[in-house]
Amino acid sequence: MKQGKNPNRRQKESIKQSGLNPDNWLVSKANDDQLLLIHRETGRTRVVYS
């Protein structure tokens, strides 16, 4: 699996809107309409649509 990167400002806003804490998530893949997130501690993945 790819290593995640820290989310930028726009991505953090999308993560907050979905009810998640952006400090706990890394961005693995970013498209125009979705973000693939990886949890920093557990490694759980989640897709967020923007």
Structure in words:
This protein has 50 residues and is of the alpha+beta class. The protein has one domain (9-49). The chain is built from one helix and three strands. It has one helix at 9-17, and strands spanning 25-30, 34-39, 45-49. It has a three-stranded antiparallel β-sheet with strand order 1-2-3. A hairpin with a 5-residue loop joins strand 2 (34-39) and strand 3. The chain is globular. The N and C termini lie far apart (23 Å). The model has no long low-confidence stretch (mean pLDDT 95).
User: What is the H/E order?
Assistant: HEEE
Number of domains: 1
Helix share bin: 10-25%
Number of contiguous helices: 1
Helix and strand composition category: alpha+beta
Could you give a short account of the major beta sheet?
3 strands, antiparallel
In total, the number of strands is 3
Mean pLDDT: 95
What is the secondary structure topology, with strand pairs?
Blueprint: H1 9-17, E1 25-30, E2 34-39, E3 45-49
Antiparallel strand pairs: 1-2, 2-3
Short note summarizing the structure:
The chain contains one helix and three strands.
Keywords for this structure?
50 residues; alpha+beta; three-stranded antiparallel β-sheet; 18% helix; 34% strand
